[in-house]
Amino acid sequence: MDLRVRALESLLVEKGYVDPKALDLLIETYETKVGPHNGARVIAKAWADPPYRRWLLQDASAAIASLGYIGRQGECMVALENTARVHNVVVCTLCSCYPWPVLGLPPVWYKSAPYRSRAVIDPRGVLREFGVTLPDEVELRVWDSTAEIRYLVLPIRPIGTDGWSEEQLATLVTRDSMIGTGVPKQPAQLP
Questions:
Q1: Model confidence, pTM
Q2: Of 95, 112, 117, 165, which is the active-site residue?
Q3: Is residue 86 predicted with pLDDT exceeding 70?
Q4: Is residue 97 flagged as an active site residue?
């Protein structure tokens, strides 16, 4: 895949369709400024800082913007908190509305018709396919993103992380845990 991307890039530059500097800037933006590492920092701060957590749950747009994560498709955010009794999953049934500033580019499966329909029809089945099995007593809520509102799931903080710094906590947060199709890594899973 990497070779194909490089060949396509070379061809587009050679034909004059793409400015190499513009392409480098775009790549740098998605590698360093936009992506799930931003969302992981938001979640880690919410786990470590109770006043920030409350703010995130009350006004996610402002709380996220306070960390500098702003931009198209991140203006109207709502944070959904997973608990021992409730698990939230995000889908966009019409297209692929997705909070780019905190999650980066949407994964291919998020945009796929099977995920978009099955997440609503059989959310527990979809979660099982992602390796997440919830007890029957856990309420499962499916949230439909739109062009007006995008969601960020605040997953349950892993046990055994008391005293961890925000930087350490961020290493446990996965993109899928912020969509609700996954859970954070456990401390024992880190290298």
A1: 0.84
A2: 95
A3: yes
A4: yes
